[in-house]
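Good day; I would like, with your permission, to put a structural problem before you. What I wish to show you is a protein chain and, alongside it, a tokenised description of its three-dimensional fold. Thank you for your consideration; the sequence and its tokens are set out here:
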Amino acid sequence: TQQISRMLTKLFQRARLEKPGQVDTRAAEFTLGLLVAMYDRSGTGYVKIRSVAAALIALSGDTLLAKYRAFFQLHAVPHGKAVSITRSALRSLLTDLNQIPGIVGETCPLSSVEIATHDCFHGVLKSAIVEEKFLSWLRSEPPVLLWLPTCYRLSATEMVSHQARCR
């Protein structure tokens, strides 16, 4: 957690330089607290970097497609001539991502991670899938991750303004 704290401090310092007055001075502290609450419930002081990376990608302001591609890159491994993601890597990613709604009391049963993994690999004979199949499955908005596109849409509409006037 100390390494993550230093990394978050640097990250938010850069963000404050890019967007003066828009980034809280305690952002790194709050983000670390959130990450520890999600991924170190037993208080060991250790958090998997891959879990932190997945959470930061999910909570970023990037587009859904950019997030999905980053998730793939985070968990993909060379598989023959292609780069692909295995069932166990997908299961790990989904488990990590489900900690995010879980922290606010929106728990998802572990069985839904298994169902989602099965759905993603439906009709696949190999032990891993390529990025195209992974992205296609995510675009179908699997129930286990429905919160992600929903949060993205809510965030995207915050900046919308209409020139309509009401009486």
